[in-house]
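User: Hey, quick favor. My workstation is busy. Could you predict this chain's structure for me?
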Amino acid sequence: MKKLILISLLFSLQLFGLQLGETPPLVNLEGKDGGKTDGSAWNSTKLKDRVFVLFYVDPDERSTNEEFSQALQDKKFDKQKYGSVAIVNMAATWMPDFAIESKLKAKQEKYPNALYVKDKRKTLVKKWGLADDASNIVVFGKDGKVLYFKKGKLAKDEILKVLQLIEDNF
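Assistant: No problem, here it is.
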């Protein structure tokens, strides 16, 4: 009986969450679920043809990986080879949506090469197993497959490894 429970648990973990080397399940954010700052839809099929770094962040944890974000900006990667997406887990905070949306629109104008997206119903928590009330980093290869995934703060040595991983996959 214990073996059956363990096998079932391991099998269910394989079906839920991000797996290195795999393309995650399709996520579509639009309407009541969220979307881009201009109100248009966003879906995860856009995470291909370049190396993408996706930040999935609770607004209360927005500074958790600021050091990594700054390191990415300092690299000035070629925008033909690299892209970044910041998805805000709006359901994970006490802050009102209008306040978050205002900040996101300002950031989108300040950083036009990054894409800012709203997740109003924790869709990526549910479909990809990302950490709720946290900062998540996911790196996608040009083929849309997961190259790296981290829940929480990246250490300095991890930042260097992820930057090298990005460059190695151009």
